[in-house]
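Quick question: what would this complex look like in 3D?
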Amino acid sequence: MEAVKIKEGIYWVGAIDWNIRNFHGYSTIRGTTYNTYLVIDEKITLFDTVKHGFEEEMLARIRSVIEPEKIDYLVVNHIEPDHAGGFLHIVKVIKPEKIFLTPNAKAGLLEYFHIQDLPFEEVKTGKEVKIGKRTIKFFETPMIHWPDSMISYLPEEKLLISQDAFGAHYATSGRFDDEVDHCELIQECAKYYANIVLPYSPQVNKLLKTVKEMNLAIDMICPDHGIIWRKNVGEIVGLYERWSSYIADQKVLIVYDTMWKSTEKMAYAILEGVVKEGIAAKLCKLSVSDLTEVMAEVMLSKGIILGSPTLNNGLLPTVAGFTAYMKGLRPRGKIGASFGSYGWSGEAVKILNEVLKDMKAEVVHEGIRCKYSPDKETLERCTELGKTVAKKVKEVLGL
Amino acid sequence: MIKYVCLICGYIYDPHEGDLENNIPPGTPFEMLPEDWTCPSCGAPKSEFEPKI
């Protein structure tokens, strides 16, 4: 296994996890990569490590360039175990002179590994370290996406090592954005943002503004997952601006589950209403859907319509689990409504409306509750609900 | 009015800005935030904040 040269004297030396399909619940249908970068200068510097189990793959790639023991500096941009799981093993091999990290990262690593006595050197935003003809400039990025997170910028190379930002769970043999299928790549980036970064959108937005104000020249972005951006840097930065500003597409997502198909009949009638207004719509039944995929659709859709039958005075467990997950990811700027069938008490619609309000969505309909099974009149009301949401989507997006 | 910093994630509560997302109007001093107010960035409770010097 070999390193991949990304610039003169700079190499990708990470690992490819082709077969991972469950990344702490995130369904990584296209696998992932753990990217690390090696810079050969007067002080040879390694940026990040890999998930435990992938240390030897990474060391083999480093060995194709230099002996790992020659590495002087290690930079820890993020301490989550997919990057720092192999930290101790790698530190034992390379015995770095210095380990650069944020104060939060140092505290976190000590708590993770119950260790002390490593040559840690804490860095804060703006700190610069000369490694020879190159400089590393550090920026703390707290909560993008952990308290310890930071990014490293090499001004002479116009290169940003961005840790989890701008990344994707996407295993490919190509290392660069222009070597992979572009549609797949953008899909995976959206999914990654929706499922990992979305709650921290205000921080992302602020960081992008800061970077713009500082006029940082960037011609390559090297994230810790997925591919390296060299051709479409502007596109991915633009998408992060869009997603972190909660700008969604002109479409409506209907997310529901059903017990005896009554709520499902309502969902189809609502779908018909949305489509009649000329707005694209998608239907997702949670019992057969992948939460990671649904969440990406939530982020990309302006309208969100939630449906659940009432079970034991509450939501169906699939819907309850999904709404808890969705609320935690803090989508904003949505237009919403809810619906559901019931037998005797019928609390689900009220609970779903509360979910929408918690998400600060604009709820444009009081919701439709239907006892046992929808009749023609109820289905017509459902179609009207779909139309109401679609009309509001058009109005808000100025169409 | 003094700014407060979250010890968990570094978020800074600026009373001049408030926390509009959570219905805290500009001009609300940190001491006047509701007891169940949490860091809008990482969710830490008020007790994890310290005055920013």
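Answer marked as accepted. Chain A has a mean pLDDT of 97.
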